[in-house]
Structure prediction request, 276 residues.
Amino acid sequence: MGRRRAQAPVAAACAAAVLSIGIAAPAVELKPATVAAFDRYVTITEARMAGEMSGASPFLWIDRQPAATRGRLLERLKAGEVVAEPLETRDGQKSIDAPDCLLHHWVGTVLLPGVTLDRVMAFVKDYAQYPKHFSPMIQRSRVLKQTADHFDVTMRTWAKKVITVVIDADYSVSYRPLGPTAIVTKSTASNMYEVDDAGTSTEKRTPVEKGGGYLWRINNYCWFDQRAEGVYEQCESISLTRDIPFGFGFIVRPFVTGIPRETLEFTLGRVRAGLK
Prediction:
């Protein structure tokens, strides 16, 4: 029976099955109906985002919160915290059924104090330095092609939580200016492989559609807004993983429900640290 959504987490960039405990959950094949559910979820979510980009609703998630809540969130951001919360996109009044999988949808925000949008863009577009700035999560990164507002990048990402997962993937990243003080980006992953025995002579890559199901799809949307106190970076991540198989919850559950949020918090925290 299909699961709908994880009650908690995403984000941005995780990977293959090098099990640090010698017991692997069974492989699972990605089904067309699962992909269709993810695509439907993304389409409805992006329609909501279009209203925020047009000015029909507040640009940042924090500005869409009730006044009292927003005040507390701003205090946390100014204190240097990364604020991350789960989201759910619904199809009208209904949850979007995603058979045999979990959908993870998170939003995270950080304040980058005392910096300009230009400086932030120089940092986030410097993909060659990602293994330095985002180690150990990003192990290698290389630009395949670029224009002023678009980058094609290949990366190897690493994540560990009970199990270690390594993934090779290509990322298509577009940048869309919305005036002199705001930019939005969209990143989608493709050509995704789980990597067993990464970095060894027995390294093996398996297409994620036929692997452990620890990450099948991931879209990441980041919003940058320069204000008097600095630049707010908000990233919204939507990812797709396998469901939790019976009898293997102790292996799979911590990874697929914990890594999405932790990845988002880690990435935003590293951007803030790198721009101090």
Summary: Residues 1-23 have pLDDT under 50 and may be disordered. The CA atoms of residues 62 and 72 lie 10 Å apart. The chain has one domain: 32-274. Helices lie at 32-54, 67-78, 117-124, 130-133, 249-274.
